[in-house]
Amino acid sequence: MEKFDVAIIGGGSAGLAALKHLSNLGKQAILIEGGKKIGTKNVSGGILYSKNPAVGKVYNVENIFDNFLKDAPVERQITKYILHATSKDKVFSLDITPTHNYQSNFGYTVLLNKLLTWFAKEALQSAENLGGGIVLGVHVKSIIWKDENTIIIETDELEPFQVKAVIAADGVNSEIAQITGARSKFTSSELYQGVKVVVKLPEGLIEERFEISENEGAAHLFAGDITLNHIGGGFLYTNRDTLSVGAVYHYDSLIENPVEPNELVNALLSNPFVMELIKDEVPKSKDSYKNLSKEEELRARFKSNKLIKSWKDLHQAYYSSSRISDLLASGLYKTKDDIKNKIDSIHNELVSKYDIGFETNYVELEYSTKLVPDGKRGRMKKPYYKNILFIGDAAGRGIFVGPRIEGINVGIDDAVRAAESISKSIDQNNFDRLGERYSKLVEESPYTRDMNEIDKNYLKTFLDCTKQVPKDIVGHRYGTIFKLMSSNTLRNISIGFANTLGYKRLLPILESNNTYTDVPVEIAERAGRDLQKSYSITIPTIAERIAKLDYNDDSLSHIKVLNSQSDFMKKMVTLCPTKCYSIENERVMLQHEGCIECGTCAKETDWKHPRGEKGIIFQYG
Amino acid sequence: MTSPLSSISQTKIKENQETFIDDTRKENEKEIEENYRHLYIVIEQEEGTILPVSFEMLGEARRLIDDFNKRYKPEEKVVAIILGHNIRHLCKELIYYGADIVICADHPELRYNRNLLYTKIISQIVTDRTCAEKITSSIHPVSTATTTPASLNPIFSKPRYMFFSADDTGRHLSSTVMAELESGLASDINKLVINDLEIRHEHKTKGKPIVYEKTLEMYRPDFSGFLWTTILCLDNLNPDNKKKFHPQACSIIPGVFSRIERDTTREEKIIDFDPNISQEDLKIKIINRRIVQSKVDFNNKKTIVSFGRGIKESPEQNIKLIENLAKELDAEIGVSLPISKKPYPVSENLTSTYMIPDRVIGTSGRKVNPLLYFALGISGAVQHIAGMKESEFVISINQDIQAPIIDESDILIKGKIEEVLPLLINEIKKHKDKLQIPQGIEQ
Amino acid sequence: MNPDGTLNTAVIVKLEPDFSEGNVSYNADGTLNRAETKNILGPHSAVASTAALYSKVKYGSRVSVATMGPPIAEAALQQSQLICDADELHLYSDRIFAGADTLATAEVLKAGIKKMANGQPIDIVFAGHRASDGETGQTGPQTAWKLGYPFIGNVIDYDVDIKRGYVKVQRLIKSYGYHDIIEEIEAPLPIFMTLDPSFIPFFNTISQRLKLARHQKEAIGRSSQYKEYLKVFSAQSLEVNSKAVGLPGSPTIVYKVEKIPRAKANRKADVIDGSSQGNIGQVVTRIYDTLGGTIIK
């Protein structure tokens, strides 16, 4: 049997950071990833933070990946953080950039497919020299202890192999946790469900519309009627030439009042304020070519598709200064106006010759969902089992406090602590105290502190931002949270107030319909700007969204329904983001082909990740 | 095979027309008469079962040689070669189906086709003087019975023509045998004509027109199914580079030629050939052989649903509809050859399940004869038709009612697949309910 | 085999029209428009390249890739190298090779294979099942015969016993009118094999997967610099007999090319308008009639 020092299960941000750091420490590690390519199974909102806490030390991405600041394919550095309260055609906007900057080195928007591919490249370079590396398309199915310190890993695809320690980085639906019994599945109160669409928009338009410079980015958060009465909110982040538009809601609140995830993101997309931010000029698709013979029709289709492709490409390029310089350097165009003229002439040709119309709409690229663990409630108190260390989402370690949503950075911090612990065990050739050592290191992390107690200074920073909310516009019926926001005096004593109230009692106040829906609606109604819709938006149906996704279908289902008549499973008919469940004769039926592996249904199913290479292939993530 | 057409005269020789025959040609013809004779067919059998293509080759050979013998002298024969073990009893079947003579190599080591060994033994047989003499004696029984006058016993060196089957085994065997015999080979032939042709070729004839007599015109459909390429195997008569190329050989597409009626009155002439097997050639060993069930089951399904390039406008959606239709009718799914070249970017799973050679129906794939055959978006290239024409009832869906598939269809539904199939599936479901077919009964 | 016991392998590839939608162009009469159609490494050549990669990962073999054709055929070598991380690329290119049929092509390939790996003998030659444009499937076996290598076709799996110098091969045999058969063959090296289109290499240990990843990465680098690995041979540098190659070495010629005349109609089709639900209903009735009371599962 082949032997290696360490196996890392899962090639997400945490797993790859662990591989990189172990390699940095000179330790041989094999990373096992189920996807055929890195980054095809990962979804994030996505902002990647680098933090600088006042007390204690966290390990940041740039500490692990030396070239991060120079080379990493990040999207934009967030310089504006804005919270919007919405109600129908009204919006009230609040600049909360200080909360973003709070104890923060930076926050970049990221698309995980791109970023993780880079992580993998960097990690692999170091790992290979030590006889380690990344193995793709492999699904771990069981773990056997040969003796206390020897773990045999069995997979669906490969011959079994042997390691001394394992880092489980297999995400919120960790199978390793289930196989070993290290923790039970997360309950609905320990989870959020996130849903996101990636929207295409030329980079120049992004900069103009969001009032940011070439390297800057904006993050917009939404509360109010767009939540459809759920606890959570919407977000819209600017990437280089795309936008991440989505929503995250408390799973408890979704179970209580099920709404289709795509409806939740649609509520945001069809908000008039959001509509203005995402709009673009779009050629209309054409399905009939009347009066043309078959040959002529084929020719027309071929030609017009080609023209549309070059129009789209030039349209994108025209709004990108770097692409413009490239085009000018290529000698194809002499001036920027030349490019514009070319765009216009293609446009005209399409309209006049091929009868292709143009409209204002938006361009959606990818629909995705993900469960987010709430570290406050669900994190593993002892994130290990024997020689297996759990990191990131697998250990339930996400930070979710008001507008503060962090996961990737926490996973990276865990990864370093796990790698350090294992490295020590290897050096001492003693794995007896590995788990405890790691657990202790994790307890020391400032992130763990943030999951244990609310950071009062952060709360104060946030409340200070709400100064702009006009006073006395809302009655007192909304209770504590509004009082906190609306009174100068109270804001100033909020730290003391939070202390008095205590974390346990503060949470339900913060995480309530009042906070996320009622108060924002009231604010928007009374103080919001009026908005008008300038176009009518065409949002893809869920069927169209699924059709656009790329799958490597597995004929075998990776999910088994345990009780087809339970209340929970009946709710899955609504809550499954890709409509894998339906009801026939009072029984819930599963069609797994459209599954995007979010784990929403995992609680009451026999839920496994698909076999190697199978299942969803996210292009953006 | 891309010799410039412009350099070849395409005129066939008309009767009574005075033709240009130079010395080279005369000399050449004489040699052919003496050295290269008969049509040899390499029969394929598996475990004592003669494969259908063997009978089809015999049928076509019979027709060609009967015609040949009417037009030319001296008389030539259809010679079947069969290799195997315990296959002696098969020889008379080959006679009944058109062979004049069967050369049989029956040997334990020849039980299965091993390319190296078979190539050597076949090459031995077709260049064997003793066999040739026995064939000649069958033509001139009186004279050979006593003495063999030299004039009647020409120096045989190789066959005039040779046929192989165009399945994988035959294609490989034909290639290696012809490499050994150093002659030309055309593959996947579906039409054969013997003619005297006047050829003017930049190399073969150094640009001069020369008549090649008894030339086998071998027609092969190209991959698109729209073009027919005629291949000739010709001697180099160019004085700078003279070379004989015989036999003129081809591999024949299974299923295109018809067999002749079985005639048990035909005289049995069987020559037993004792193969010369070297120990060296036995180093290649067959360790194990097992029959496998293809995942694609065309034989046990009553219905086959096939699709072609007509799915192009929405390939993913169409394939899924086709899956549904197949499910409703308990049908197997087939494809046309172009689909196996994976022309559309559909999901990996659909690609690896359907866009594969295993599902191709036609001359490059399987021949099928279901009760019900659907041709969806298939224009009807000859290769495809050869694979499905035996179906009982054919329904095609096509936007173009001029497409050749109409000639092989009982019903042609004019329309787009994506529009017709939902209606069709719906109707099938409706009727199913009405019929109230009892559940759980297997046919 | 090399003195250090590693295998020498060769791959024969071909540049072919790209039949994928958007790249292939057909004339109005349905024939291929070669001028407008892009050319790529043929799909069967890609499978052969994959088989060489398998040998490289599993046995650390050295791989040479060869093709005969005009200079643009380099593209096939480059694409093959991207698959199999080839150590050497051979292009056999000479005006006098033009017009070659399979036998004359085999003559050139034979001469080329003998020049691979600095003249070290090649243990395994891989080639595709057939070309997707020519579809004759003859060049592989004929090259094998000329080399004096035993030929094994339709290979779906193989395993080399380096110590004994033997290869064990699984091949899939399909014949019309008979069952499909999987045959297991053992043969001494050297061997010439063509790969069945269904050949999929399977790497089932961590070390093989790691080696695979390394080779795939290396292949990207190499193929971007493929010219450094490329050797171009003319008839003279190959030392072939000019009378055995190209037109002079080809027994066959293309006599004519014509459109296949439409066959006589075998059936008289009822043409039905597919947009009417009622019409479709009638079709379904006939479907059930045809299936004649048989049970549709």
Describe the structure.
The complex is a heterotrimer of chains A (621), B (443) and C (297). Chain A is built from 25 helices and 30 strands. Chain A has 621 residues and is of the alpha+beta class. Chain A folds into four domains: 2-75 and 110-183 and 380-452, FAD/NAD(P)-binding domain (3-Layer(bba) Sandwich), CATH 3.50.50; 76-106 and 190-279 and 362-369 and 457-548, D-Amino Acid Oxidase, Chain A, domain 2 (2-Layer Sandwich); 283-358; 553-617, Alpha-Beta Plaits (2-Layer Sandwich), CATH 3.30.70. An eight-stranded mixed β-sheet of chain A has the order 19-13-16-15-14-5-6-24. Chain A has a six-stranded mixed β-sheet with strand order 8-3-2-12-21-20. A four-stranded mixed β-sheet of chain A has the order 1-11-10-9. Chain A starts with a strand and ends with a strand. Chain B is of the alpha/beta class and 443 residues long. Chain B folds into two domains: 7-283, HUPs (Rossmann fold, 3-Layer(aba) Sandwich), CATH 3.40.50; 303-429, TPP-binding domain (Rossmann fold, 3-Layer(aba) Sandwich), CATH 3.40.50. In chain B, strands 7-11-6-1-4-5-12 form a seven-stranded parallel β-sheet, sandwiched between helices. In chain B, strands 15-14-16-17-18 form a five-stranded parallel β-sheet. In chain B, helix 4 packs across helix 7 and helix 8 runs parallel beside helix 12 (417-435). The model of chain B is unreliable at 1-21, 142-153 and 436-443 (pLDDT under 50). In chain C, strands 9-8-7-10-6-1-4-5-11 form a nine-stranded mixed β-sheet. In chain C, strands 2-3 form a two-stranded antiparallel ribbon. Chain C is globular. The model of chain C has no long low-confidence stretch (mean pLDDT 91). Chain C contains seven helices and 13 strands. With 297 residues, chain C is an alpha/beta fold. Chain C is 29% helix and 26% strand. The chains are: A alpha+beta (621), B alpha/beta (443), C alpha/beta (297). Chains in contact: A-B, A-C, B-C. Chains B and C meet through helix 4, helix 7, strand 7, strand 10 and strand 13 of B and helix 3, helix 4, strand 7, strand 8 and strand 9 of C.
